[in-house]
Give the backbone structure.
Amino acid sequence: MNPTDDLAMKNLAHALSLALTLNACGGAPPAVPSPEAQHPPALVGYVDRVGVLSALPAWQTAFEASSPDPAASRALLVVPPGARVDLVLGTWCSDSKREVTRFWKALEVAAPGGAPLPFQLRIIGVDRGKHAVVDGQDLTDGLDVKYVPTFIVTRGTEVGRVVESAPGGIEAALGALLRGEVR
């Protein structure tokens, strides 16, 4: 046997020994669950207030504790019609829980009976990668979402957006954008 063959046999023997040892020990260690598998869960796709609040008790608690400005809340119902608000949230994100529940409470304060909104509201739940793939299509394509929550106001084209938080309250910031008072 030449030295090269001897080395090859030793390498093969070491590889087999390692494989047998790993197999005897149960193989590789179990994988750490992905962030999406951890708590809180990521609700992905089109969502609504009722679905999120019923699925996530912590969000329900935050909603009940929210106290938006009543005047700014009522002003959300007297904006020029025809706008759309795309709300991109992560149910795993504390900023989303704080800002989105405040926004939902503002809408409830403005219209306790659920009056129709003068703007279209589309709510998209995303995973931790900021994507919402449903039936092979990413609902966030073209929205350029880097952080959640992101509220995007459009009137044909983008008017403006509120990202993560609004110092004066989400209800005031969105009202300003919906009225065309770009901040």
In short: Helices lie at 3-24, 49-55, 57-65, 70-75, 94-110, 170-178. The chain has two domains: 1-30, 35-178. Residues 1-30 form one domain.
